[in-house]
Amino acid sequence: MSNIFVIKGFGGERRLHGTVKVAGAKNAALKAIAATVLFRDTVTLTGIPEISDTLRMFDLLSDMGGEVVNIKKGKYEVSIQRGFATELTPAIAKRMRASVVLTGPVLARYGKVSFPHPGGCVIGARPLDLFVDGFEKMGATVTIKEDSYVVEAKDGLKGANFFLKNQSVTVTETFMMAGVLAKGTTIIKNAAMEPEIAHLANFLNECGAKIIGAGTPTITIRGGKLLTGKGRLYKTMPDRIEAGSFLILGALAARELHIANCDPAHLEATIEALRSAGIPIEVKKTEIIVRSASRILPVDIKTHEYPGFPTDLQAPMTVLLTQADGESTVFETIFEGRLNYTESLSAMGASITMMDPHRALVRGKTELRGRKLESPDLRAGLAFVIAAIVAKGESVIHNVDTTIDRGYEDVEHRLRAIGVEIERAKVLPEANYGEPAK
Ligand code: EPZ
């Protein structure tokens, strides 16, 4: 059985109201879970979002021999001791790109790691060359088999200097964590600067790591011993992508919507873009209030590594641009497959022209009509939820359990609480008759 969302659209009316609370950040929590491999003792993690990706990462640790105890909602204790396997279980790791960050800690601690070419979203090629180069620079040998990698460092990892040709977040995090146990010093230049990276480094430093410069283009890590989690508590930071998605929803379908439990400092590019579109936004310490605009102005969006406009909010922002009066452009600079979802928005009535795999022209304002939609990845999936709420008539969104549920905790209940007419249902996966059985 697969899950669908059935959403009754408001046809452009502004019916949402109240407060939506932001959950813990998926892309912070996943890395904290991986970082538990760097610890000699038990690590306590709190504020972990209960989404399929985090549950899958815990499953992976358990399946490899780690001990994972769920104390209560969002709170876990993890202990990685002797007998921990060095192979990432392919059936689990393949389903989530983020599993790749486990390779750094496992290799650094045990001198060996093997893993499948990770799966994840269909947003682009997502190569692993920077991982292979990096492990070799740290003294490991890498053997590539059909679709798996075996990496060995019999004498342990040694510190190395990297210049990343692409500011990959997971590459930055993987080698920041590997450097914690390597012999000597590791320097990562042209590092990604997403706030989740500094958040992780701060926690690891509290537990004995020596990481300087996380959140800047150059990170220096002095290698040392296993970390100590005793007496420490990891608190997941708020999910800036979820907060931004709710901001955009509020701008489209609310008179006034409060986004609570967020960190506005992590949303400057998004707030800036919405204000340029004429959306009134009030920023408080841990809350953002979005109010309705008489008309939405067209803006040109260009995604960029942090602190630029986040690629993970490109799809929700494009939905908003279909309701702007005039022509906007969307330039997706990071992933080559991340505009494919716009075909579905056009089928709902949007006027979107693909100029090349990275650029789209959006002509607004167009009326959207509810349709049957297939969610291609978690971020476009959430964008389809937003489009369905704005549209006239009913929409059915498929693949909810394999996309939206990966990244948004209990989303239908939080949406219903602010006035969205949304129901979750289970359906048999569409029978694929394909070729007749031989
Ligand atoms: C992280 O991906 C996030 N994923 C992404 O979120 C997010 O979109 C992205 O950062 C940007 O903010 C996680 O944190 C788990 P990559 P990142 O595959 O940067 C190139 C979501 O929806 N590259 O490393 O780790 C690659 O081609 C996800 O939550 C290489 O060249 O993504 C691309 O240009 C989607 N060689 C860039 O780096 C490599 O070996 C980033 O791609 C690896 C990557």
Topology (SSEs and partners):
Layout: E1 2-8, E2 16-21, H1 26-35, E3 43-46, H2 52-63, E4 67-72, E5 75-79, H3 90-93, H4 103-110, E6 112-116, H5 129-137, E7 141-144, E8 148-152, E9 161-163, H6 169-181, E10 185-189, H7 195-206, E11 210-212, E12 218-222, E13 234-235, H8 240-253, E14 254-260, H9 268-276, E15 281-283, E16 287-291, E17 301-302, H10 314-321, E18 326-331, H11 342-347, E19 351-356, E20 359-364, E21 372-374, H12 378-390, E22 394-398, H13 404-407, H14 411-416, E23 421-427
Parallel strand pairs: 2-14, 3-13, 9-10, 17-18, 21-22
Antiparallel strand pairs: 1-22, 1-23, 3-5, 4-5, 6-8, 7-8, 10-12, 11-12, 14-16, 15-16, 18-20, 19-20
Bound molecules: ligand EPZ.
Residues 26-27, 30, 97-98, 121, 126-131, 166, 168-171, 194, 310-312, 334, 378-379, 407 line the site of ligand EPZ.
Structure characterization notes:
It is globular and about 65 Å long. The chain contains 14 helices and 23 strands. The chain has helices spanning 26-35, 52-63, 90-93, 103-110, 129-137, 169-181, 195-206, 240-253, 268-276, 314-321, 342-347, 378-390, 404-407, 411-416, and strands at residues 2-8, 16-21, 43-46, 67-72, 75-79, 112-116, 141-144, 148-152, 161-163, 185-189, 210-212, 218-222, 234-235, 254-260, 281-283, 287-291, 301-302, 326-331, 351-356, 359-364, 372-374, 394-398, 421-427. The two termini are 26 Å apart. The protein is of the alpha+beta class and 438 residues long. 29% of the residues lie in helices and 25% in strands. Ligand EPZ is lined by residues 26-27, 30, 97-98, 121, 126-131, 166, 168-171, 194, 310-312, 334, 378-379, 407.
